[in-house]
Amino acid sequence: MSSPSEKELITARLLGIAKAKKEARALLGSHGQAMPLFISILRIGTPVTKLNVAATLSALCKDDDLRLKMLLAGCIPPLLSLLKSESTEARKATTNAIYEVSFGGLSDDHFGALRNLCGEKDGYWRAKLKAGGVVTIVGLISSDNAAAQSNAASLLARLMLAFSDSISKVIDSGAVKALLRLVSQNNDTSVCSNAADALEALSSKSIAAKKAIIDANGVPILIGAVVAPSKECMQGEYAQALQSHATRALANICGGTSDLILYLGELSQSSRLAAPVADIL
Fold first, then answer.
1. Which whole number is the average pLDDT over 107-114?
2. Structural domain contains residue 102
3. Mean pLDDT in residue range 165-188
């Protein structure tokens, strides 16, 4: 058996290999014992080996086939546990890993796998909720690291879509104000886009969530997000995604696209100074 220090060295080397070449990633992913070993290390390894493995999983996710393989292998539950680490680097690596594993996973098949691995089968997801898992993710959203904010917001969107019973805890955690803050501030475009993605997911699942967004002055913020790419000359896929997510979130809040258009028409004629008339027009 390898000593803890030897395992730390080995996992560091594996991380370097996974980052270096596509062929090396394919070889690692095809080994029959690789995924079970990685999962075991995430559960019972030293802090350093856990960090190395989380970063290795992020690197392996560059290949779509390996991404789904890791999801089905059961990497999400131990990664969720690792979000509670006291190490900032470990939390960042873990958030990146969860984001990368689920990045291409908006399909029903991936959501089903996520539910099976973290939900009904062993109650793992509910245990994480009770242990403050959502609060941990929201804490990352409120951090000062753009990559962590972006990945955590995207992760929160995916978890809400996969587990609708997490909505109340998301609202209670203060996530609505934190997400709106990311959308409204002059943040990295990917941060704004993923925060709007989370607000879209939130508003699609719950009447209480819609009310929370409205009460937090979310409507004018989302309207501003729709026009921001044009006003601020934003370009690229994240700028387009920001507009799409913000528009769909507004439609969710208003009860549909037609109702949204009617609402904006009424708002444009409002005498309230707070109404963003220029943005609406």
1. 49
2. no
3. 85
